[in-house]
Each structure stands twice: as structure tokens, then as C-alpha cells.
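Q: What changes when iron/sulfur cluster is included in the input?
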Amino acid sequence: MNTNEAERQNQYMHRVYEINSIPSAKRYHISTFGCQLNENDSEKLEGMLVQMGYSKTENLEESNFIIYNTCCVRENAEQKVYGHLGRLKKLKEKNPELLIAMCGCMMQQKHVIEHIKRTYRHVDIIFGTHNLHKLPELLYTLLYNGEKVIDVWETDGVLTEGIPFERKKGVKAWLTVMYGCNNFCSYCIVPYVRGRERSRELDDILNEANKLSSQGFKEITLLGQNVNSYGKELEKKLSFAELLYRLNGIDGIERIRFMTSHPKDLSDELIDAIRLSAKVCEHLHLPVQAGSTKILKEMNRKYSKENYLELIDKVKNKIPGIALTTDIIVGFPGETEKDFEVTLDVMEKVRYDSAYTFLYSKRTGTPAALKQDQVPEIIKKERFNRLIQLQNTISKEINDTYVGQKVDVLVEGISKTNKDMLTGRTGTNKIVNFSGPAKLIYKTIKVHITNSQTWSLDGEFIS
Ligand code: 5AD
Ligand code: SF4
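A: The predicted holo structure follows.
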């Protein structure tokens, strides 16, 4: 640990201690929008809040500190946040002691901060994606000086380790291995709000994985905007494949998943690591975004339709039975009906197990937002529906092939939709619902698949 880091930790603990010693009841509520990286950041925020003596509540009325961890990847994510924020105004009028903080990706945009300052004056603290660890400091400033605080760092700072996580109870945990993105896909705001790629040190990741194992977690999902470029800028260079081999050796961890991979960086070494590491699940999330090579070029994705399909063939040949999932954007500027049909063609050729499909959303500050040939909403929606329909048919057909098979299921808990059933997942990430005793929860068991749905499988517990 260098002097700066030691000083940061010292200052951090000091503030935590001071807030913790405030005698009144402290209750927080946190809402998280967006991706798993944000979910994992919120677990860190919750870790800090618990250290400061706060306890969690789902009830807005009884909380005295509300935090929104925001997302700006698409416009509807931002609109949701503004909707919630508007409703908090009344709550703050009823309870002036209530403190409201906003953080996450939206806050890294200047126009958003200006809008919040003008329109939502009831917000007390604003911070960004690069200085989460400053929460105790910012809260202290607000509590002791009574001043509203805006602290957003424009550039990505050093990675801070050692902040505790308050993780959701269960058998699965997120583990962020790198932050930021260098790819600048022309539609995407992420590189502007999350900064450049920064990998965590191997030892920090291994320590965290060991800790997760000792806490009883059996499945870890490694997170990063583009995990395939993990380790490139570390002093002691290390590939993502090497990281997987190292994590594969951790006792107690039974399953390793990761996301997201950029097709341009998916190396043979990584495909081999998935194949050869027993704990790395037979599932690859490989966003294609669009089928047409012309659109892919406009998106700055750096591969063609043919490159992508060749890559998929290679993966399927090396790892038979691997589940493939993807992200697809419909209605990127300039997308013609013909271009869209190529996306449908790719979907049919790859036969994804499932796809996250999105309507293109114009993001201020990205090159694609300046394009003149935006696709009308009505056309986007029509294409979107056709895409979903095709994917649903394929998903159901793939799920049908599971019927009659015996599969390994890591049991996650009681089914949300039917309290008499248990639910878990296969290595290929299929949801399996079945009846069985509660003692099976968090165990890996064999299930005989008896029926298939579009999004899940039904089965019977065997052993
Ligand atoms: N509009 C629609 N979808 C987007 N994504 C990223 N930026 C946009 C945008 N401007 C999607 C991509 C990415 C996923 C996380 O979000 O498909 O892989
Ligand atoms: Fe956005 Fe592209 Fe980076 Fe993914 S790889 S976060 S889509 S810029």
C-alpha cells in the first residue's frame, strides 16, 4: 500500500467512525438502475452504509437516506430515474431530515447535473462513478456543514480496494475485475462515463474470490465492460484466460461466469480456458449488436458479419453444447430493412439461447447521436418485435432439446412465482424449476428435465 492509499484509508475510516457515532437511527434505501457493474457498485455503497451504522429498508417513508445509483446507457433508464426523483420531492417536504444522494453513470454528464440542480433542488449529494469511496466524506460534509455536495471526477482515478461489500444473500456473487472501456462503439456512452480500462490486480481479485468462497458463495460472475482485455495495462501483464485458470483453482467456488466479451478480443487462448477450466461455465455472452457489416462499421465494432460468424463456428466446434447469448441494437442510424434482415439472418445462423434486444437510443456526446439518418420510432419498434419473435422461437426450440436430459443444477432458492417450487440454473444458465426439499438450496444436484418453456425448464429432482 503506498502513502496516498494509506492516507485515503485513514481518512475514510475516520469519517466512517464519526458518522457511526451519531446516535440517531439511520436507515437507508438504495435503488440501482442499469447493469451488473452498477449492482456490484451498489453492494459497495451498502457496505459503506452498514459500516457507518445504517440499516437497510425497502420502505421509502421510513428511510432517512435515499441513494439512486443511476444508468445512462439508454434514455428510458434516465427517464425512470427522473420519475423517481420527482416523487421524492413530496417525501422530502414531509420529512425535511431526509437526505437524497445521486450517483452512478448519469452523474458523469454535465448536462444531467445542471438539470438536477435546476429542477430537483431536493437532491443533497451528487457524486460519480470514479469516487464511490468518498461517500462517507461527502455525507460527513453534508451532515456537519449543512452544505449540499457535488463531487464528480472527470477522469478515472486509481482503483480503491478494501471497501467492504454488503452482498445479497444467496449462492451467487458479482466480482468486478476491471472498470471502464476503451472501445468507443459509436452509439455508446459508457466510455465517457466510466473512463478508460483499468484492471484490478490479480491478488486483489484472488483475495476477494477466496473471501466469497469462505462466505459460502459457490458461483462468481466476473464483471467488466470488456473482460477480454483484462490485464493488458497491468504492470505484471496477465491475460483474462490466465485469470480464469487461477480462479478455477479456488476451493469452494463451483462455477465461474463472466461478462461482457467483445468479439474482436475473444482469443483462442480464452476459448481454450473456457473449455479446459472445469468450473468455467459452458456459456458465452458475445454481443453482436447488429448483423450488417455496413452497420457494424458505422458502430465502430471492428468486425464484420463474416468474422463474427467464423468466431461463433470456432467456439461451437471447440466447446460443443456451449450456450450463446448476445446483445442486439435495433434501429441504429442508417439501418435499412435489408440491414435489419441481416441481423435476423445472424440470429438464425448462430441460434442464440437468448438475446438482450434494445431499441437504439440517441446518447448526447456519442458520434451516432449526430447522424442525420435516424430511424423513425415506429420502424424501430416493428423491427424490434420481429427480432423478439424470432429469438423466442429459437429459445423455445433450444429449450425443447433439454427435455429428457439429466442436468446439473445449482439450486438458488425458492421460486419467486411458485412458493412450493425450487429454482436453480444449469451451467448453460437455463433456469430450472422443480419441486424438492428446502435442504437442497445452495447445493448442486441432478435434475431430470420434463418440460420446456421459452425462458425456463421444468424438471424433477433425481439426486
Ligand atoms: N442504444 C441502445 N442500446 C445500447 N446499448 C449501449 N448503448 C446503447 C444505445 N445508445 C446496449 C448494447 C450494449 C448493452 C449493454 O446496451 O447492446 O451491449
Ligand atoms: Fe459500450 Fe462498446 Fe464499450 Fe460495450 S464495448 S461498453 S458497447 S463502448
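Observations recorded in class: The chain has a mean pLDDT of 95.
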